């Protein structure tokens, strides 16, 4: 009788342990995200969220990662950097996420940075400014090209056209402020003279006073605008209204069809550096990014019936780099995953070829940028 009871007890314990192990194995891998799905930066954050939702669903249907499902825990900061900080705290303390992909804007990313560094959680930002990864922060990485790279690519193209006297027009946001600093430094290195230097606020509704000053600046040959959201499209409209005919360049913070639509016909002839994703169909067959950009475009357009943007592409790259890191780490241990992200080599994404290292937490070089021009209301490659 005692033996029978003992066997029953051992069997029950084994079942309990088995159930607990099974429950543990089934625990989802939590991907946290804070994105600007509404507010002035919505046309960046909206496709980022849609991309994460699309591919997490797809990965889960294919069996998940490490035999576990992915779970997206996301918050909308409404394009308010202050709110991003609070949501990052919630992701870390309450939701206990394994990794964060997000931070649509530089301001949001930098407000989250001290929290993720203190908590020692891997964070892949989707924002543009170089300040995110320079100086290198142990737990923070990013997928988009930097504002410094944008300035270099733009000035390279200007010089080919014999344009060396430039008016700089930047937004007072985190991205614009960093872009202003980096562009001023790059101008000195590349023999470009900034003959005018104006700023605008992200909520400004009329840029004609600043553009009038630029128009009247002596010797100006071209204008370079650095901003994101709806402001740059308004610059285009005011530019056209004032009859300014100087070559107009923008940074990569506007690389989406929405920018062309918001400009309402005033973006014709505008040039900007952007990822190959916007011209996926026009890439030669032997381009290493052809397959990934075409597949992403087909998946995204097929699901949402709307044009792709480089911002959604940044989210795709962030998620895929994270998934690859989990697999190589064979774990969700945060330190191991961080090390695996930093060791990412040869990843071909929508933004370019990524080779990270302990001194480079982005991993892209200038070849990842393509110079584009808006012709007949669409993107075209500048040769």
What does this protein structure show overall?
With 383 residues, this protein is an alpha/beta fold. The chain has twelve helices and 14 strands. 45% of the residues lie in helices and 17% in strands. The strands form four sheets. The protein has a five-stranded parallel sheet, sandwiched between helices. The chain has a four-stranded parallel sheet with strand order 7-6-8-9, with helices on both faces. It has a three-stranded antiparallel sheet with strand order 10-13-14. Helix 11 (310-329) packs across helix 12. It is globular and about 65 Å long. The model is unreliable at 16-24 (pLDDT under 50).
Features:
14 strands; 2 domains; Rossmann fold; 12 helices; alpha/beta; 17% strand; globular; single chain; 45% helix; 383 residues
- Beta-strand percentage? 15-25%
| Structural category | alpha/beta
Just give the CATH class of the largest domain.
Alpha Beta
Uncertain parts: 16-24
Largest β sheet strand count, sense and barrel closure: 5 strands, parallel
Percent helix: 40-55%
**Assembly type of the shown chains?**
single chain
Counting structural domains, the number is 2
* Annotated CATH topology of the largest domain: Rossmann fold
Order the strands across the largest sheet as they lie in space. Answer: 2-1-3-4-5
Which overall shape is indicated by the principal axes computed on the Cα atoms?
globular
Number of helices: 12
Q: How far do the termini sit from each other?
A: 88 Å
The CATH superfamily of the largest domain appears as Response regulator
Can you write the helix and strand succession as a string?
HEHEHEHEEHEHEHEHEHEHHHEEEE
Radius of gyration: 23 Å
The total count of strands amounts to: 14
- CATH architecture classification of the largest domain: 3-Layer(aba) Sandwich
